[in-house]
Amino acid sequence: MAVQTGTIVELDDMKAFLGMPDDQDGKDDLITDLLDAYNEEIEEYLGVKMLNTSYTESYDGDGTNTLFLKHYPIISVTSLSIDDTALSVSTDDDFFIYAEDGFIRLDSDTFTTTDPRNIDIVYVAGHGVARTNISRVLKQALKMWVARVFKAENVDFSQLFDESSLAHIKSQMMPWDIKQKLNYFRNWKWGRV
Question: How many structural domains does the chain have?
Answer without folding.
Answer: 2
